[in-house]
Amino acid sequence: MRADNWAFQSDNSASRAMERTGGRLACSTVGLWLGLLLLCSWGFPGSAEPRAPPENIAIIGAGIGGTSAAYYLRQKFGNDVKIDVFEKGEVGGRLATVTMQGQEYESGGSVIHPLNLHMKRFVKDLGLSAVQSPSGLVGVYNGETLVYEESSWFIINMIKLIWHYGFQSLRMHMWVEDILDKFMRIYRYQSHDYAFSSVEKLLHSLGGDDYLGLFNRSLLETLQKAGFSEKFLDEIITPVMRINYGQTMNINGFVGAVSMSCTDPGLWAVKGGNKLVCSRLLQASKSNLISGSVMSIEEKTRTKQTGNPTKVYEAVYQTGSETHSAFYDIVLVATPLNRKMSNITFLNFDPPIEEFHQYYEPLVTTLIKGQLNSTVFTSRALDEFDLGTVLTTDNPDLFINSIGFVSSVEESNNNPQPKADRSHVWKIFSAGPLTKEQILKLFVSYDYAVKRSWLAYPHYTPPEKCPSIILHDRLYYLNGMEVAASAMEMSAVAGYNAALLAYHRWNGHTHMIDQEDLYEKLKTEL
Ligand SMILES: Cc1cc2nc3c(=O)[nH]c(=O)nc-3n(C[C@H](O)[C@H](O)[C@H](O)COP(=O)(O)OP(=O)(O)OC[C@H]3O[C@@H](n4cnc5c(N)ncnc54)[C@H](O)[C@@H]3O)c2cc1C
Ligand SMILES: CC(C)=CCC/C(C)=C/CC/C(C)=C/CSC[C@H](N)C(=O)O
């Protein structure tokens, strides 16, 4: 058992010692006094004193992972702990907007699933509001023609899907629903305060070996085994993976299901921009934002006011040209450490903190206000082009992953109607920056183009191991969760889990960590 569990154990043994000794001493005055003395110093039997909260906590990264962790750490540890959140760029991280003609558009994480309950709760608790994401018609382009085109008539859509792919679309829907149903168990576990020390254990708790198997096998392998046809996989599933993760069906089955859930109705976004959730979480958690870049973390021994030598972490950080350092009892790393993406060095750890070699997928978001050249995709007359999004198949000649019209973060999108002959704002995802020639292939004319480059999400190559959540005694890492699936809600789940894990380990509540068969145990709980 680690040092941070010790306080809890000694409290318990004090209580047990009290129970054992109390009876025998009660008959003599000396015994009575001694008993009282023991009561004062150890507390009453059965009332184990919780350990004093930590003094200082650092969180590195003010994206949705770091800010949700701040929010839940405050709830768990109370008001006495000082929480510093370091951010080297903008609050929000991969939740960001770009501005065009005075209007803001999401350039990073944009859509939220209706069953993403943490995001839903944040919006409600933080006084924000939701807008519906555009739900225009979708087509799939293979470099020559539209191989699939949605119709605005539900019944025609159904007939088309069955005509082209039999009942595979329905089977796919059921497959995704089953995975999502099991994913929802995490909310129950977290509402009962249970935490997990590894992503694998968390996934296993949701649906056992089969669920973990999803993560360990490619989507292609899983769906081929389930009997889905090559045509369906090429024309429907791959294009969805390309718009969402810029990758093919070689990604793991779990992230594949998360990606497919984006075809569900009811996707939404935060009015004013998704990044508002992060700034509001910071405010609500009464955290101290430090606009600076953390360069190194090292464990040190310090003598606190109590006179006891205590192990703490020293964070060295840079703000502008100045270098500072501060000491923390607990540190949460809420940014990808892969291939030195965050440039944090872990000094003198024995054994050394593991290095993460998986790379993040480069992706460019380009927003263009212009008149789409719909003849690229179809020979039909311009005014008959009614698609809101064009997905693409895995054709190396194609230079875009997808193109779709978008609305500003302030607009509601109940029934948007794009027309090729009017100027709309279109969002394009591509692996690299678009050249002017490429833009002019896609647009008859355009007024504005703004781009934002990302290292967007892990390049998925199952089977792979998720990085540890516990990097060292009181040093936690959130972004290993992205190896399972990268999405806002996944980071929020990781933030809550890390907060619970840090709290339970601090207080020695080992029974709240990595409990097996939680689903069965909690079935009868309200
Ligand atoms: C183009 C794009 C589209 C996406 N679309 C969706 C979507 O529609 N729906 C969805 O759910 N998800 C989407 N995602 C994924 C989602 O945005 C991410 O999974 C999520 O935002 C990750 O949040 P995070 O807090 O874990 O990491 P980040 O947002 O990356 O936060 C990490 C923060 O740490 C900071 N940092 C790094 N190093 C240091 C340091 N040394 N010191 C201090 N600060 C540091 C960074 O500046 C950053 O702000 C999309 C992502 C991209 C890129
Ligand atoms: C975590 C669960 C169960 C569901 C999350 C589903 C979800 C919203 C995943 C997002 C996947 C993702 C990275 C999408 C990127 S592109 C999004 C959108 N199509 C756009 O055009 O911006």
TrEMBL record:
<dbReference type="InterPro" id="IPR010795">
    <property type="entry name" value="Prenylcys_lyase"/>
</dbReference>
<keyword id="KW-0732">Signal</keyword>
<dbReference type="InterPro" id="IPR036188">
    <property type="entry name" value="FAD/NAD-bd_sf"/>
</dbReference>
<keyword id="KW-0458">Lysosome</keyword>
<feature type="domain" description="Prenylcysteine lyase">
    <location>
        <begin position="149"/>
        <end position="515"/>
    </location>
</feature>
<keyword id="KW-0285">Flavoprotein</keyword>
<keyword id="KW-0472">Membrane</keyword>
<dbReference type="GO" id="GO:0034361">
    <property type="term" value="C:very-low-density lipoprotein particle"/>
</dbReference>
<dbReference type="InterPro" id="IPR017046">
    <property type="entry name" value="Prenylcysteine_Oxase1"/>
</dbReference>
<feature type="transmembrane region" description="Helical">
    <location>
        <begin position="25"/>
        <end position="44"/>
    </location>
</feature>
<keyword id="KW-0812">Transmembrane</keyword>
<keyword id="KW-1133">Transmembrane helix</keyword>
<dbReference type="GO" id="GO:0001735">
    <property type="term" value="F:prenylcysteine oxidase activity"/>
</dbReference>
<keyword id="KW-0325">Glycoprotein</keyword>
<comment type="similarity">
    <text>Belongs to the prenylcysteine oxidase family.</text>
</comment>
<dbReference type="GO" id="GO:0030328">
    <property type="term" value="P:prenylcysteine catabolic process"/>
</dbReference>
<dbReference type="GO" id="GO:0030327">
    <property type="term" value="P:prenylated protein catabolic process"/>
</dbReference>
<dbReference type="GO" id="GO:0071949">
    <property type="term" value="F:FAD binding"/>
</dbReference>
<dbReference type="Pfam" id="PF07156">
    <property type="entry name" value="Prenylcys_lyase"/>
</dbReference>
<keyword id="KW-0274">FAD</keyword>
<keyword id="KW-0560">Oxidoreductase</keyword>
<comment type="function">
    <text>Prenylcysteine oxidase that cleaves the thioether bond of prenyl-L-cysteines, such as farnesylcysteine and geranylgeranylcysteine. Only active against free prenylcysteines and not prenylcysteine residues within prenylated proteins or peptides. Involved in the final step in the degradation of prenylated proteins, by degrading prenylcysteines after the protein has been degraded.</text>
</comment>
<dbReference type="Pfam" id="PF13450">
    <property type="entry name" value="NAD_binding_8"/>
</dbReference>
<dbReference type="GO" id="GO:0005764">
    <property type="term" value="C:lysosome"/>
</dbReference>
<protein>
    <recommendedName>
        <fullName>Prenylcysteine oxidase 1</fullName>
        <ecNumber>1.8.3.5</ecNumber>
    </recommendedName>
</protein>
